[in-house]
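dude i think i finally got it to work??
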Amino acid sequence: MEHLILGLLMLSPMTGYELQQFIKQNLSLICSHSAGSVQTALTKLEREGRITAAESTEGRRRKKTFSITPAGRAAFSDWVAQPMQADKVKNMELSRLFFLGLASPAERSAAIRDYIRQMEETDAMLRAIKARFEAVRQDPLPPGQDWDSIFRFQGYTIDYGIAAAQFELDWYKRLLCELEEKS
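look at this
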């Protein structure tokens, strides 16, 4: 969570609420968007000197806007430059599939149908994120960033998610057909 927040603050200063909402709308399939998770990470990053907070008042509301520090930029740069690790990507839900042979045929089919439904929802959510992403790319953006590179890799991430969801949908639909043919 800390590196994700540092990355978002590399793009623009944000309040805790803005960070939480961005994560909820765009990254909820990657990590938790709970206020507690975001606040815990912000507290840790501020204590480590990787971010700073500026307080302001709007009407009766106090607002705390977070910005990344040079130490935070260095920590983020070190992290993002590391090779991605395939062994870190785990899907514990596959353990249910592994043991699904212990369930009744009806329970197996129901579990797979429900998973297909969830993956269809995930696919729809990712496609909505992609549509929002494409709309944001058309808006004027603040200077100082290589927005083409930033958007290119964010687009790759969204495309990967859509392709992965489509793979799972196709795979589980074939599995369901196979199970129903053998019933």
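Helices lie at 2-11, 16-27, 35-47, 70-80, 94-99, 105-138, 147-182.
im so relieved honestly
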